[in-house]
TrEMBL record:
One of its GO terms (biological process) is reciprocal meiotic recombination. Pfam families: LZ3wCH, Mnd1. This is Meiotic nuclear division protein 1 homolog. Residues 76-144 form a coiled coil. Residues 148-200 form the Leucine zipper with capping helix domain. InterPro entries: LZ3wCH, Mnd1, Mnd1_HTH. It comes from Thamnidium elegans. PANTHER family: MEIOTIC NUCLEAR DIVISION PROTEIN 1 HOMOLOG. GO terms for cellular component: nucleus. Keywords: Coiled coil, DNA recombination, Meiosis, Nucleus. The keyword Coiled coil applies.
Amino acid sequence: SRKGVSADEKRKRIESIFHETGEFYQLKDIEKLGPKRGVVSQSVKEVLMGLVDDGLVTMDKIGTSNYFWSYPSAAVQTKKNKLHDLQEKLTKETERKLKLENQIEEETQGREPSEERDLILSQLKEQEDISKELNKELDKYKENDPVLFETKEKAAQIAREAANRWTENIWEMQSYCVNNFGIERSAFDQQFGIKDDFDTV
């Protein structure tokens, strides 16, 4: 049987229509041109809106109609910006991980093991594994292979979920220290540089 066109290939083919011509199009125009590139007209709108959502194609309303366009230089810059955001998130997550590691080391010195501590250590191991996966994703981006850019949203989502887990871990450690060692929450926040607007992303 004939193998269908992959979602990534459909995106590249629709995007290439704009890059090769440098023209503005309406949806109906792309639905006519899509089949000539091997993308059936019924799936053109979904593919096109996915490119708009990812910032690779621009949509603007002129009068009563929507027009679409995309230039190669703008698409490359969008990919670079998203890669930069991902790198920043990884940096912040790494900093939080290091702070938690240091705190765990301080709290475990001279103390007997506990279920709470075992839980935190288990969560730390989980986040270390996530960090390794994020670094692998970043290595792929550094190769600057256009095919790999489709995974950028998934990598960003992983980074966001990991950052949120670390936020929850810090809150749990804060409660643990308050309940077991009598540390004031404000003192805890000051010690570890936690700001008032510290929250999940």
